[in-house]
Amino acid sequence: MHLQLEGAHARHPAARPEAPDALRGVGLQVDAGEAVALIGPSGAGKTSLLHALGLALPLTQGRLRMNGVEPWALNAAGLRAQRRELLIAPQTPPLPPR
């Protein structure tokens, strides 16, 4: 799958109304077969980015394309079909000791 994210802004649904978007102006391109690691401090927006890419969190601004298709422009059945191609594996606390 080819993923392309351009100028993405996203707001976590549990964020306070006055809180800034978790993602602001993010761009990313991942080609089929590529492996990508996301590393950053707590609160940097890693989970929000993964939820946006997993179609669990809509963008407030910007564009997401998967294999050239904008998933959020699809009808409900098309969006469900696109989501079936993805997996979000949540991290379950507690983290293992280091």
Class from helix and strand fractions: alpha+beta
Using the alpha-carbon principal axes, give the shape.
globular
How would you characterize the largest beta sheet? Answer: 3 strands, antiparallel
Please state the CA-atom Rg, rounded to the nearest Å: 14 Å
Proportion in helices: 10-25%
Number of extended strands: 3
Provide the spatial order of strands within the biggest beta sheet: 2-1-3
Weakly predicted, low-confidence segments: none
Alpha plus pi helix count: 2
Instruction: Estimate the strand proportion.
Output: 15-25%
Distance between the termini: 33 Å
The helix/strand series, from N terminus to C terminus, equals EEHEH
Mean pLDDT: 89
Q: What does this 3D model show about the protein?
A:
This protein has 98 residues and is of the alpha+beta class. A 3-stranded antiparallel sheet has the order 2-1-3.
